[in-house]
Amino acid sequence: MSDCEPGVSVGAFLCQAGQLLRAAGIEGPRMEARLLLAHAMGCRQEDLLRDPRAPVPPAAQTVFRAALAARARNVPMARLLGHAGFWTLDLLVDGSTLIPRADTETLVEAALDAFPNRGAVRRVLDLGTGTGALLLAALSEFPTAFGVGVDREPAAAALARANATRNGLADRAFMVAGDWAGALSGRFDLVLSNPPYIESAVIPALMPEVALHEPALALDGGADGLDAYRFLAGALPGLLAPGGRAVLELGQGQEMAVTALARTAGLRILECRPDLGGVPRALVLAGL
C-alpha cells in the first residue's frame, strides 16, 4: 500500500489490506483488516460496513498502515489493539506478558465448580499473574475475596495493577513483582497458576505469533517443560488453607507428569478438566 492517499475509501482500503494479509499467510484476512481499520479510525466494524465509500482520514491511514505492516509480520492482533478479552473482563496487554487465551478460562470454570458457595473463598493467589487475567476473573466471581498476584517481571505486575483498576477491582487485588511464592506468608483458599510449560527446545518451532512475539520468560518451562510444576508441587502444601484448592494450567500431554509430581508432594488430584478442544487443561488439586 502506498503512502497517504487522499480520498481513498474504506472499501478500497479494506480490499488492499485483505490482499496484503492473505499474501502474508494470515487467516481471516478481511476480518482482521476490518478490526485494524476500525481501531485506526476509532469506530466500530459495523460503521465501516455501513458506508464503505466513506473516505479514510489521513491520520487514520498512517495508523492503519503501521498496524497492517506489523500484523503481516505476525505481531499478534491483541498487541496491535492494546487489549484482549478474558472471561467477562477487558484487559490491557503489552510485550511483558502472554496474551490471555480462551483455553485458560477453563481454570476459572474449574475454580467456580470447586467452590459453589461463592462466599467460601476469601483469599486468592495467582502465581505468574501476567495481565492479572486469572486473579481478576476469580475476584469478579468471588465477591468477598481479596487476591494477590505475583509475577517475576515488574512490568507485568504493573500491567496487572492497571488491569485491576480498569476492571474496578483495584481495592481487592494486590499485585507484586517477586519470585513467585518466595516472599509470601499465610494460606489461601484458592491458588491459580498458568505457569511457563513449553519445553525450551520447542519454543522456536511454535507459531510465529508466539515464538517471536510472546515473552520467553512466560513460555519457557525448562528442558522438559516441568520446571515450574516442580516448584508449584513443593510450594502448594504450604500455601493452601484447609479446604483450599489449587488450579493449574497444563500444556498438551503434561497431565500424567504433573499429576505424578503433585502426588509425590502429598497433594490430592480432584479433577483434570479438558478445554473446549478436549485437551486436559485445568488440574484441580487439594492438600491431604
Automatic annotation (TrEMBL):
Alphabetized InterPro entries for the sequence: DNA_methylase_N6_adenine_CS (IPR002052), HemK-like (IPR004556), N5-glutamine_MTase (IPR050320), PrmC_N (IPR040758), RF_methyltr_PrmC (IPR019874), SAM-dependent_MTases_sf (IPR029063), Small_mtfrase_dom (IPR007848)
EC number per UniProt: 2.1.1.297
Ranges of residues in domain Methyltransferase small: 112-200
Catalytic reaction annotation: L-glutaminyl-[peptide chain release factor] + S-adenosyl-L-methionine = N(5)-methyl-L-glutaminyl-[peptide chain release factor] + S-adenosyl-L-homocysteine + H(+)
Residues covered by the Release factor glutamine methyltransferase N-terminal domain: 16-82
GO molecular function, one term: peptide chain release factor N(5)-glutamine methyltransferase activity
Residues holding S-adenosyl-L-methionine: G128, T129, G130, T131, G132, D151, W180, N194
Pfam families: MTS, PrmC_N
Protein origin, superkingdom: Bacteria
Record GO biological process: methylation
Residues that bind substrate: N194, P195, P196, Y197
Keywords: Methyltransferase, S-adenosyl-L-methionine, Transferase
HAMAP family on file: RF_methyltr_PrmC
Alphabetical list of NCBIfam families matching this protein: hemK_fam (TIGR00536), RF_mod_PrmC (TIGR03534)
Functional summary from the UniProt entry: Methylates the class 1 translation termination release factors RF1/PrfA and RF2/PrfB on the glutamine residue of the universally conserved GGQ motif.
Similarity comment: family membership: Belongs to the protein N5-glutamine methyltransferase family. PrmC subfamily.
Protein name per its UniProtKB record: Release factor glutamine methyltransferase
Organism: Roseomonas populi
Gene name per UniProt: prmC
